[in-house]
Amino acid sequence: MMFGPLPTGPPTTSRFEMTAKILAASLLTLLAAAAATAQSDKLHLVNGSVIEKCKVTDYGIRSVRYDRGSGNESVETDRVAKVELGKFKTVYARGLKDAAMMLTLAREQVEAKASVMAQLGLVGAANGFLDEGDPAQAVATLNELAKAFPEGGALPEVYRLKFEYYMGAGSPDAFKVAKKYEQDAIGGAWPDGFAVEAAFFQALSEKSSPADFQRKLKSLVGRARSANPVVAGRANIELAHSMRKTGSVDEARRIYEDIVNKESADDSARAGAYLGLGLIDLEGEGGKEAARKALLMFLRVRLETTDAWPSLQAEALYHASQAARKWQGPEYRYIVGRCRGMLFNDFPNSEWAKLAKSR
């Protein structure tokens, strides 16, 4: 009987061992993917920095807790400009363009005790109702949020959204909301950044002379510089607007340009700066070239500050159409039509849409 040569060298790996190694490698890959998914949230801070690859575990009015790597950390809530959940669009996929559906899905998250996802869903639903021209339902949704999460980190959004709506509508309720915000922030011992924001809202909604208004804003800028840089930027913009309207154009321009060049400025402050610079050119005596420069500034609001307040977006579209008319350059009629179309479609209930329809 003939036998082949005996094998030489190290023993070969058995099929069982090879299968085990493949399964182990697959398991490690799955675990790594799960960990990446679990820590896919982001925290955008008021100083412009971003905490990435984390998992937000608690969103309270005083602190936001999150897991990152193998540790658990926290940051004061007034230092957080925006909470971005990696799974938000998946959880709320059916409600991204339907406020009523988003509200339904958010209520499911409340029932499931997924408090962070539920709070952001309720805020998203309220924003959606405002976009759909249903402020009554938006306010009801915000009240539902406040009742469901009396210590929730999204509570300031209740005041912000109500305040912006009432200010846009020219309602005296804006001041009432700002006053209630301050009372709750101070009485509840919330982080100081919220009380500063409430004081800013009061300054915006309280009737006063230009000199008194500017005095309040200068004081707020100093107070907010460390407590809430976002509010400091926005207060500076309002100060520049007031100065521009009272003839201090050079000083106003300096403030606008400082905000534009500041990397940490939030979208609303930057949008306000673009608007202000555009209005200086549009209202000046520079003729068609100045109108062209103004148009470009107004368009930057639409293109570069997508997270700015809707009221600022609407105002920019209105002024862009006016600047295009004054410029009368190539295809200016097309630009006017596009700007007015976006204004009427995206912000149909804004004061700027109503003003555009009257002209």
Query: Roughly how many Å is the radius of gyration?
Result: 26 Å
Biggest β-sheet: strands ordered side by side in the sheet = 4-3-2-1-5
Whole-number mean pLDDT: 89
* Uncertain regions spanning at least 5 consecutive residues: 1-7, 30-36
Termini gap = 107 Å
Number of strands: 5
Helix content: 55-70%
Q: Which sequence of SSEs, written as H and E, runs from N to C?
A: HEEEEEHHHHHHHHHHHHHHH
What is the structural class?
A: alpha+beta
What is the percentage of strand-forming residues?
5-15%
Quick one: biggest sheet?
Answer: 5 strands, antiparallel
**What spatial form do the alpha-carbon principal axes imply?**
globular
Helix tally equals 16
Provide a brief overview of the structure:
This protein has helices at residues 15-38, 88-91, 99-111, 115-131, 135-148, 155-168, 173-187, 192-205, 210-227, 229-245, 249-260, 267-283, 287-304, 310-327, 332-346, 351-357; strands spanning 41-45, 50-59, 63-68, 71-76, 80-84. By secondary structure, the protein is an alpha+beta fold.
